[in-house]
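Researcher: Re-running this chain for the archive, since the previous output was lost when a drive failed. Same request as before.
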Amino acid sequence: MFRRSMTTLALGMLCAAGAAPLTAAAEADYALQYKFRQGEQVRYRVVHMAKTKTRMGDTEETSQVRTVSVKVWDITEVNDEGDTRFNHGVASVEMSQQAGDAEEIRWDSTSDDIPPVQFSQVAERLGRTLGSVLINSQGQVKERSEGSGGSSSLGMGDVTMPLPANRVKVGDNWAVPREVRARNEAGTQKIIKIRELYTLEKVQTGVATISVRSEPLTPIEDQAVKSQLVQQLSNGTIRFDIDAGRVLSRQLDWDETVVGFQGASSMMEYRARLTEELEASESQRTARLVTPEDADY
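Model: Regenerated structure tokens:
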């Protein structure tokens, strides 16, 4: 009886000792901040694929697009408060699109081929600075100047993922509001309020896994309005390197169906995925983006 009691006590102590790190891990909190070095270049490989199917009465059409690009940030300034200024642009792109039964159109900027007219505007902006952005360590944009063509989020978030100002634990979330403009069936413009809800799902070996979900806050009854929002609402997962202070990867998905956006017999299906992976980078690179001072837009 004594030996059984001692064995039970020993097992209990072992279990308690093993449980302590789990509890500590669950209670740990983390500071999520961007950290860059002046002069470095950060590059991401971005793959975006989308398929849209529309039906109007007896007519149905399917269109598909695929884009593989290399996104570039040239870090030009980092101050003592952690604010970072960078020029952003696209170094290369491979594009294809197909509408209905038409022949697929392809172009790869790394080849010597002249781009098709459909891709000519993209080709003109490759290797150039598309904009200059100043962010704080939470990724909030403090200053922005956009070059020719501007930018559009299309539900992909801003140029940086916003991070919480306070330390967070696994399970904590933070939200970022934004507004989208759409027109109803009568042609009246309507402002739709949306929030991006971020949740810290887990932290493993210094990498935070964060989920994001777009949530409309404005009730949407008009299907014409809803059809204009399908590209603005996404769900996905981001992996963030806490020590290095940058996004390692991102995946966003769209899966929306709208019925009756232009009459009872109309239907739209939108399926898409965007993936983004950090490329191995050098602290200094000789090939920098061409700035507005170097070339006319």
